[in-house]
Amino acid sequence: MKQETNIDWNNLGFNYIKTDFRYISTWKNGAWDEGHLTEDNMLSISEASTALHYGQQCFEGLKAYRTKNGSIQLFRPNENSKRINNSLKKLLMPEIPEEKFINACIDVVKANERFVPPYGTGATLYLRPFVIGVGHNIGVKPAPEYLFGIFCVPVGAYFKEGLKPVNFMISDYDRAAPRGTGSAKVGGNYAASMQAHEIALKRGFADCIYLDPATNTKIEEVGAANFFGITKNDEFITPLSPSILPSITKYSLMHIAKEYLGLKVSEGDVYIDNLDIFKEAGACGTAAVITPIGGIEYKNTLHVFYSETEVGPITKKLYDTLVGIQFGDVKAPEGWIYKVK
Ligand SMILES: *Cc1c(COP(=O)(O)O)cnc(C)c1O
Asked: Which InterPro entries does the protein's record reference (predicted)?
């Protein structure tokens, strides 16, 4: 067993840290190899890899949580497995059996146990699975070989002093095309979002919100998170569109809203000209958990929801229940928690 880390768990951000082990598996001649853990955090690949030139790659993000009694658990890794296979299919890459994906996640967490933050700090171990097309190839076609890797980094609690709302602006750009790769978790969508993201930061916003690329009238994504709103008659509403990345956090919140909080829940159109129906709004995803949305700027006007400085009561309840389930303090729905140890 390696020694304890000297990490200050209460002051972790979202930054790369070299942990002890990562998993790597190679696909060649039609099959994945067994895969193994390695201490080497560098990859050596062909200069002609499709991942480098044509964006043939995809990734996932999930977290391992330390519970009050010291055990470690993953939150719905089977959903990440389904989603990566969806992204892989879309980019003509070989799928990964669910068992291989989940076991590799568990092996990486176990091998880096000293980096799983203590319960009570709000910090977690973030896992980053990815698949890249590699091998010697110059034409635009699927790669001859693939690498599937998973590394992990301890990350801090997003909100250290309680949930604080932030403001967003509506972007003039689209992140994905109406019939493009928006629903796949691929790097190309992120490359396409960097300029819009930088503009939002420079203008003092947390990030930008993308409207639907076909009509520019409906909310789609909040940066790299999904949108939800709570209407004045207590309905949880979230956009439905083929160019949104289906957030596992979002689908979990829909279940929590209905089954734990007794709210009505629906997926549908969220028109940017009709934000008055909402009394609260938020952005959700694995990294941010829930970010309360203070206001949204559109056509030079800031539409404020509950408050620019305080989280709304329903958003707060959704957050507490979700985080409670993830850290093992609230009873989880059947099948959501995978024990690592
Ligand atoms: C990963 C991701 C999300 C959040 O999904 P979760 O499964 O909740 O982590 C939302 N939008 C985009 C564009 C993403 O890549």
From this structure: Aminotrans_IV, Aminotrans_IV_CS, Aminotransferase-like, B_amino_transII, BCAT-like_C, BCAT-like_N, BCAT_family
